[in-house]
Amino acid sequence: xxxxxxQSIINGGNITVENMLLATVCSLLCGFIxxxxxxxxxxxxxxxxxxxxxxxxIVQIVIMLVNGNIGAGVAVAGAFSLVRYRxxxxxxxxxxxxxxxxxxxxxxxxxxxxxxxVFALVISIVxxxxxxxxxxxxQKESRNLRILIPENLDYEGKFEDIFHQYLQSFELxxxxxxxxxTMYKLEYDVVLDASKSTKEFMDKIRERxxxxxxxxxxxxxxxxxx
Length: 226
What we know:
- This protein has helices at 17-38, 46-66, 70-84, 92-109, 113-132, 160-166, 198-208, and strands at 143-150, 167-178, 183-192, 214-218.
- It is of the alpha+beta class.
- It has 2 domains: 3-132, no CATH class; 143-218, Ferrodoxin-fold anticodon-binding domain (Alpha-Beta Plaits).
- Strands 2-3-1-4 form a 4-stranded antiparallel sheet.
- The longest helix is centred in the first third of the chain and has 22 residues, at 17-38.
């Protein structure tokens, strides 16, 4: 690795206009790299992407303004801690993206612009490779199956033969009464057999539950949190 990559452009703690502009440009470039790679095949909102773009430059300018002042540093740390309690918890990938943007901004604020650029690029590419290869993810996509049945229908063992024919796996997760106790709602976690017809599967269930409601949907993304 070239020596200049780990050298700061700030000498002796003296910040010039040129250094500040160069660090700001590098922060914005790193922000666009992080945000651009994050957007590839991942759900996102425009507000979050804009935040990833501008966060490194915000952290960078704050670090430059503190510039060794302990009192100002403590005040800034207190201000950042207040932001945490005024925001909702995000997904693991979102939190990691925010921390990456803050780390890049910190490096730029200290003058290590090449190190920040290399770090942002390498970590973003690693995240993208992990996501595209599904490393650590489930190999089979689960679905949520909801079946409405009348109260006089014994649901235990009623649908298992259909499940074994059309599903790779299934598990009863939730049972509750509805419509003033006149019906039961069953909820299953299921993995579909790709070689079988989903319509035929749902028609078979409707024949058993008296043609009442049958719903098949994607699972909510509830496990992607730190």
